[in-house]
Amino acid sequence: MILASIHHITFPVEDPLLKFFIELLIILLVPLLLNKIKVPHLLGLLVAGAIVGPYGFNMLSRDSSVVVTGTTGLLYIMFLAGLEIDMGDFKKNKWKSITFSIYTFLAPFILGFIGGYYVLHFSLSTSILFASLFSSHTLIVYPLVSGLGITKNLAVNITVGGTMITDVLSLLVLAVIVGLSQGDVSTAFWIRLSVAMVAFALVVLLVFPIIARWFFKNVSDKISQYIFVVVMIYLASILAELAGIESIIGAFFAGLALNRLIPLTSSLMNRIEFVGNAIFIPFFLISVGMLIDFSAFFKSWETLGVAAIMLVASIGGKYIAALLTQKTFCLSREEGMLIFGMSSASAAATLAAVMVGYNIILGQTTDGEPIRLLNEHVLNGSILLILISCTISSFVSMSSAQRIAEADREDTIAGDKLPDAHILLPINTEQMTEKMVNLGLLIRTKSKDDQLFALNIISEDKNESSVKNAERILESAVKLGAAADVQVQAITRHDNGVVDGINNVIKEKSISDLIIGLDKDKGFSTSFMYNLYNGYLKNEHVNLILYRAVQPISTVKEYVVLIPPLAYRESGFFEALSKIWNIARNSSAPLIFYSTADIIEILHRIIKKSAVEASFVNISDWKEVDQVIGGLTSDQGLIVLMADRNRFSYRSPIHTITQYLNENQIENNYLLIYPFTENNSDVSEKRAISNHQDFAEIGKLIQRVFR
Fold this sequence. Notes:
Radius of gyration: 29 Å
Oligomer: single chain
Number of helices: 26
Distance between the termini: 63 Å
Strand order of the largest sheet: 5-4-3-6-7-12-11-8-9-10
Structural class: alpha/beta
Largest sheet: 10 strands, mixed
């Protein structure tokens, strides 16, 4: 029966089960084979799509199922680009991105217009549309670059920011030319287009975050959260089309809108990347490959001529733009080539514009043939452009990105780097498990091998139920870490008391950071304060973080950070700041620093080395602290650097920060960070400084800690 069924299989395959099996087999085998010969698997998926597609062996048809999953893959690429962009770096480098977008729009446009108008003798409107095809590009290699861990590189940041601008400009040219061809360009047309685009941007960038923050606060189910993200991607894409621009711009804006609500180290982020890279993005590449018709290039010399001009305009223009960007901003050769590689791929926007132009009929010839805005030679040439540009993009991007990643690793190894952090999370209730693990993931340095330990203490006099409760809590912590692709090591310890057990684990595991969770309702009880002063703070070589969670940490809009005078004299000052920096970088939440002028001066120097989105308020009188805390709004978080363990208080009307927080019961997330006061045994250099004007010493510490 099975053999008979196989015998009657016809091409293209119609059976949905077999069809999906073939596509999954391609996605599985192509990367495995090509990785062995150092060929980017992105290129392999394109070629595989061409081979099995309607213009190859016709094994699979490019039907609606392929188009839907492929479209989702394209939207996914643009969404990830917006989601992973570092907003601090983006704002810092916005003028660089704008400059690059001008270069990468104009250089190919000028070459394309010359080729279309003066060489191919197209009409003026056709030449303008023809030239705009080469200005846009698709970040088809972004998943590859992201996988190498260099998304925070300046070249990547410039390219991603510039992509949004140049694609919008290209698609705007398309909208205007289409309107001209249909005689629809009037004052009303410009008003309608402008209002629609502004309304779209306002809805996505302002309303989407409000909806998402409410959803993440009230819905904890992980599957529902992921589906919600996909819904938002499609909703933004639909709104973009309604506004008269391409759906890919909508997906990119959706990424920007959710940027601050999906931490880079969270389990949700890991799910988004995993599903996209495993399913949707490969389907997009296969679907693009199915468009490639090799025979079309041999049917007419004119097609090859048009294709040659398109290649020169697109690849040549993008190379010129990348070179100009490299020279303008004094980037390295590898960074310049990475910009060229990432921006040279033409796929989505180019194909969309070509299809629109091809389907617009301006009239008929004497023979009754339709006169199209863009003829079939341009259509066939665009397919060759997609194949060759994606090939060049894959090879150049992989080569330059690998060299940049290797240089970064060598710089880290050669430098005087700090040891990896060992973060301890004592957890005694199921309610605190997710909150503690999420904070641990947030303060963890993603580029290092920082380790997370989840600990549950069982007193010797407790019964068997305590053991089962510990197993359940720790198993949940391990699963939460695994969902974010991070190993959480579970520790169950039998000891005389909680404080003794924690202190013993600190010694055994060389813990560098201890996070203590505060119960939402209990706050700073008398027994807790006793354990704090007489237990946890006795570990003077450990950073201590007290954490109270009122809402999911991903929904915190921004953090108010209080740093007391002379805090820089603490040995652990810079390491404590690095934890705050990790929170900002991994969550994209802005920081508002309240401190004295000398410390703000140090913070400015750190931002030059490691950019985060931050603002600064100079406090002349530390009595203002109570007003700052009392003025916290909902969705703001509070971070206080608790300098000087021996004093435990500030010289202000607030007798102690802990007392104030306990008495006022603020409904905000807060973290109290006690920097270590004694150096770790494996770090010989004393890292305290006596004067904020000791620039050489501060510079060395910043270089060492903020990598």
